[in-house]
Amino acid sequence: MPREAVLILGGTRDARELAGLLTTRGYKVITSLAGVTTDPVLPPGEIRRGGFGGAAGLGDYLARQPVAVVIDATHPFAARISGHAHAACETLGLPLLRLERPAWQPSAEDNWTTVTDAAAAAAALADGARVLLTIGRRQLAPFFERPGLSGVIRCIEPPDAAVPPGWRLLRERPPFSLEAEMHLIRGAAISHVVSKNAGGAPLAAKLLAARALRIPVIMIARPHKPETATAVTAEALAAAVERLLCP
């Protein structure tokens, strides 16, 4: 079976940009979406929805498809699928590339506390904190379990847990403007911003707003992922694919 397709493990804006670049350059592109978002913005090319069933399931899929290279363009915090991709590609001898934007870095003007996970982020907040919580919908329990915390939860999909009194839910999709973020922080009397270090350039508007308003940020560090060849832009990753498939 000739291997001619590119499989993108996607779901991010960078993955959509990469799919567009590769499609316009004549590659057959399959983007796999985990199905977490109900109404995702779809990239060009073929779409596959749903999980694979672990590394073995992904390996079975790759063995049956004409995939020449796998690109991990998932969210920087999607450590499980990144591990599965690494294991499956290693077993099958397929090249694996990663598209991952660089992590955000604080400047001297920022007041960031870096923590390892959501539980540590919740523990770092003092009672009475008013929080802008922007970590997605799945790891909110440590914050909800502390009655002394309140604020605004912003996510695309509804949270897994019931939102307790004192919290306001905003279901919104980025990007957000600096003006809008400053208006939100001021209007909700936010004292702290809690974020995952999704990274990218420029710095997210919520972090620029926190800097301007001198609001402390609790930043959740990225999880460890297996080492693999990585590019930080879609253009650089597309060039790497061309070098692999058209040497």
How is this structure best described in words?
Helices cover 32% and strands 23% of the residues. α7 links the parallel β10 and β11. It is of the alpha/beta class and 247 residues long. The chain has a six-stranded parallel sheet with strand order 3-2-1-4-5-12, with helices on both faces. Strands 6-11-10-7-8-9 form a six-stranded parallel sheet.
- Beta content comes to 15-25%
What count of domains describes the coordinates?
Answer: 2
- Count of runs of 4 or more consecutive helical residues: 8
The largest beta-sheet arranges its strands as: 3-2-1-4-5-12
Question: Strand tally, please?
Answer: 12
User: How do the SSEs run, as a string of H and E?
Assistant: EHEEHEHEEHEHEEHEHEEH
- Tell me, briefly, the overall form: elongated
The CATH level-2 architecture of the largest domain is identified as 3-Layer(aba) Sandwich
Helix content: 25-40%
Output the radius of gyration. 20 Å
Q: Structural class, please?
A: alpha/beta
CATH superfamily of the largest domain: NAD(P)-binding Rossmann-like Domain
CATH fold annotation of the largest domain: Rossmann fold
- Report the biggest beta sheet as strand number plus sense, adding barrel if it closes: 6 strands, parallel
Which descriptors apply to this entry?
alpha/beta; 2 domains; 6-stranded parallel sheet
Task: Please give a quick description of this structure.
This protein has 247 residues and is of the alpha/beta class. It contains eight helices and twelve strands.
What topology emerges from the helices and strands here?
Layout (H helix, E strand, L loop, with lengths): L4 E5 L3 H12 L3 E6 L12 E4 L4 H11 L2 E6 L6 H14 L3 E4 L12 E4 L2 H6 L6 E5 L6 H4 L5 E6 L11 E5 L6 H10 L4 E5 L8 H9 L3 E4 L8 E3 L2 H12 L2
Parallel strand pairs: 1-2, 1-4, 2-3, 4-5, 5-12, 6-11, 7-8, 7-10, 8-9, 10-11
